[in-house]
Each structure stands twice: as structure tokens, then as C-alpha cells.
Amino acid sequence: MKKIIVPIDFSEYSEYALKVAAKLAKKNNSELLALHMLEMSDIMLTGAGEQPQKVIYFLKLAEQRFEDFLKKEYLEGLTITPIVKHFKVFSEVNEIAKKYEADLIVMGSHGASGAKEFFVGSNTERVVRNAEIPVLVVKNDIAKINFDIIAFACGFGEDSIEAYLKASSVFNRMNAKMYLVHVNLPNDRFQSSDEIEIDAVNFFTKADGNLDKMSDVHYISDYTVEDGILNAANKLGADLIVVPTHGRKGLAHFFQGSVGEDVANHAALPVMTFKI
């Protein structure tokens, strides 16, 4: 993990993300790319007269505020590259990540409860859907970043293999233990133990070419996928929940509707997405 990018909007949640990114950067000897998206209208950017001077003025103000924001003790000793871009188009974060060859995006979010939504229409949702690299979403000021136990939500579909292999590569380098969590649902989606095991065997055979990871599968029965993932993560003592995504095509395999959003909404733990 050589480069970590963090979008900054000066909120307390983006500072949560910055703190987590700083801790990961120190652990992995990574460069930190701090990104601020400065929102400006088309008129200001293309207008005549005094508009260009106003653009320059606001850019300078943003750069100064950004510079002051990055004067944190927890950032001392890190290699930090500040990046200021005009337009608040969060789908462009992926383009910036590709340009700078970043390995991870870390974003802060306030989450939601009840009828409020976390992903839909949010900047985090736009980044997750467009990002080709993993996105780590944090909602709290996390004291210690020890991703020792990982709960990887998996339905054992072939479309999850790529995300599984990417996650395995990342967490193996971190010496973390990754469990694959499979949620068995009632009614028409119920599977017998033998059926689940056959799916798991086929999955690992295609993904790893062996069945060494069969012992790392954690089965749980619940009424909803999101409840099953959260309960399994709690039982495993997980430090992180991982969800594979299809990006713009929606969430992978059994993640229908708002399951992925609900997991990110209600999980006290950080959530990381890997694009399929």
C-alpha cells in the first residue's frame, strides 16, 4: 500500500478519515494524498470580467485553509501531498486516484439511522460506485487501527472471486485473519448445509485452486443479510467488514436493494468495499 488518498471537506468526519489514513500510512510506510474538492460554478470558471480574479481568490483561500487543516500532530513524519481541485464532482476522485496511482481511498461519513440514507445521493456513494480501488468508510474517531480480524461478506458467487482475491492479497500483507461470512436466509432463499458447502467448495476451487480456506468460512442464519453480517462480525470480534461491489451496477450477488447501504449505515465498524 504505497499511496492512500483522503477526500477532505473540513468536517469532523473527514478528519476521522484523515486520522485513520494517517495510521494506515504509518503502518505501511505510505504516502498520504489529501484531496480537497473546491466547488465552483461554471459561470465563475468561464465568465469574463472579474470572474477569473474571483476564482484565483477563492482557490488561494481554499489552499490556505487546507494547509492549516493539515497542520496536525498525528500527520507529523508522514509524506503528504495536498491536492486542490475545482468542482465538487466526487465521481472524479477515481480519476485522481488513477493519476496518482493510489492504492486505497479513505472516506469519512456520518452514517444514518431510521429513514435517513447513507449511500443514496451521497458523496461516499459516488466514490464507491466509481472507484476501481478499495474504499474504506469510517464514521467514528477510531483510537486504534488494528485490522486483525476481517469479516468478508460472501455469497460464494463467481462474481465475488475477484474481490475476494484482491482482499486476500491486501490483508495477507497485513497479517490479518479474513473470515468469509455467508448468511443463510429463511423461506425461498434457505440453503441446506450441504448446498452451502458445495457452493463454498466450488468458490475456493475456482478462486484458490485448493480448499485450504474452508475452515475460514463462517455460516450464520438470520432474517436479513445485513443483520447476519453485523451479527457475524460481532461474534467473530471483527475489526473491519468488507463488502464486494459491482460499482455502478449495484451491489454484488445477494446484496439486493439496500443491503450494502444498511451494512454501512448500521455498522459501528469501518466498512471497506472492493469493486468486482
Automatic annotation (TrEMBL):
What Pfam families does the record point to? Usp
Q: Known InterPro entries for this protein?
A: Rossmann-like_a/b/a_fold, Universal_stress_UspA, UspA
| SUPFAM superfamilies found in the cross-reference section | Adenine nucleotide alpha hydrolases-like
* Domain (UspA): residue spans on this chain: 1-139, 148-274
Q: Which domain of life is it from?
A: Bacteria
Q: Which Gene3D superfamilies match?
A: HUPs (3.40.50.620)
Name the family.
Belongs to the universal stress protein A family.
Put simply, this protein is called: Nucleotide-binding universal stress UspA family protein
**Native species:** Seonamhaeicola aphaedonensis
